[in-house]
Amino acid sequence: MSIKVENLSFSYLQSTGERVEALTNVSFSLEAGAFVGVMGPVGSGKTTLIQLLAGLRVPTSGRIYINGADINGRGYDRNRLRQTVGIVFQEPEHQLFAPTVEKDVAFGLKYSGLDPQEVTARVRWALATMGFDYDKIRHQSPLALSGGEKRRVAIAGVIVTKPQVLILDEPIAGLDPSGRDNFLRFLTQMNQAGTIIILVSHNMEALADYTRHLLVLERGRLVDSGPTREVFIRLKQRTTGFHGETGAQRIATRLAGCGLAHPAAVVTYADLLSALKQELTGGGRG
Ligand SMILES: Nc1ncnc2c1ncn2[C@@H]1O[C@H](COP(=O)(O)OP(=O)(O)O)[C@@H](O)[C@H]1O
Ligand SMILES: [Mg+2]
Predict the structure, then answer these.
(1) Whose CA is nearest to atom 18 of ligand 1?
(2) Exposure string (b/e) for 152-174, b if CB count within 10 Å is 16 or more?
(3) What is 13-39 written as a DSSP string?
(4) 132 and 270 together in one domain
(5) Measuring from atom 25 of ligand 1, which residue has the nearest CA?
(6) In which element (H, E) is residue 169 found?
(7) Ligand 1, from 48, 60, 88: best to mutate by most atoms within 8 Å of Cβ?
(8) Residue 285 has what pLDDT?
(9) What is the Å distance from ligand 1's center to 28 Cα?
(10) Which tens digits make up the pLDDT trace of 85-120?
(11) What DSSP state is assigned to residue 170?
């Protein structure tokens, strides 16, 4: 599994006839096993980018190759794309519509060609993966569930196709801390099982702790990309523009003012702890 994005640009046509350029000349590639974060201010093009990756919009120019095939090329099988790339939208709980949880989750398999027994097995698996007891939840109305439960059902409806690429648009916004940690651990498990994860988030700690690579968008342009730690260190050194700093980086800067810790190397709270430990046991570099 590989994804290659070449000189991707997209502009929206507004009702006034004016064009708004949302993405400009974005290029990157992702290999099998990638767990990549997408960050940037509101309006920087994150949602537009992932909609293009999922084939929900057609680029104004540029190409997207999945396993070497141009997904907007003639003859590309859109049905195959839907089975390969799963996308969880912002606030996915608003998309639940079926009378029962089971029917809602099974909808994703409507065109899969699986027989009814396989569909049931998959739905059971997807709901169990999202932490539900299948027999208890299957006949319930999605509308009767709590916000967090609705979101988990909506996500079950995406992973039920076992996509090789799972794209999520701010999936942890609005979750409570334990829901957030459970969800991020679940993404890690999916990733370890071979799924490429593309996570759009404003949560710097989540990005620092869970992703291995980052793409940074600003006004539709890819302004930085690379291994997560390196990108956070570079962002901190930026003097203008988007400043995606982790809490640990902020604390390290304050501590540096008191002659403690080494801010350049600290990105996560785990880094901060080990820097402090070293400092307190006298092993610090002064
Ligand atoms: N449906 C739309 N019609 C017109 N402009 C849009 C539409 N969706 C997004 N935009 C514009 O495109 C730019 C990128 O938006 P978006 O991809 O939603 O950014 P992000 O997800 O980073 O907040 C913004 O300037 C936004 O106003
Ligand atoms: Mg968005």
Answers:
(1) 47
(2) bbbbbbbbbbbbbbbbbbbbbee
(3) EPTTS-EEEEEEEEEEEE-TT-EEEEE
(4) no
(5) 43
(6) strand 165-169
(7) 48
(8) 52
(9) 20
(10) 999 998 888 888 899 999 999 998 988 889 999 999
(11) S
Residue 103 shares a structural domain with residue 225? yes
When computed from its CA atoms, the radius of gyration of the chain, rounded to whole angstroms, is 21
Tell me how far apart the alpha carbons of residues 117 and 152 are, in angstroms, rounded to a whole number: 23
> Euclidean distance between the first and final Cα of the chain, in Å?
47
| Residue 169 Cα: closest atom of ligand 1 | 21
Q: What is the pTM of this model?
A: 0.92
CA 117/CA 135 separation, integer angstroms: 15
> Averaged over 208-218, what is the pLDDT?
97
Distance 201 CA to ligand 1 centre (A): 16
Cα dihedral 133/134/138/141 (nearest 10): 30
If you search the block for the tokens 């930026």, which residue do you land on? 238
Residues 138 and 214 in one domain: yes
Residue 42: nearest ligand to its CA? Answer: 1
pLDDT digits (tens, 9 = 90+) for 274-283: 888 888 887 5
Q: Are residues 262 and 209 in the same domain?
A: no
Integer angstrom CA distances of residue 147 from 95, 185, 247: 12, 19, 27
Counting the structural domains of the chain, the total is 2
Q: Which of 90, 148, 91, 157 is nearest to 122 (CA)?
A: 157
In a domain, 79, yes or no: yes
Residues with CB under 6 A from ligand 1: 12, 14, 20, 22, 40, 42-48
Q: Are 271 and 197 part of one and the same domain?
A: no
- CA geometry: angle at 188 spanning 63 and 37, to 5°? 40
Instruction: Pick the residue whose CA is nearest to atom 27 on ligand 1.
Output: 43
Domain ranges, residue 274 = 246-281
87 shares its domain with 205: yes
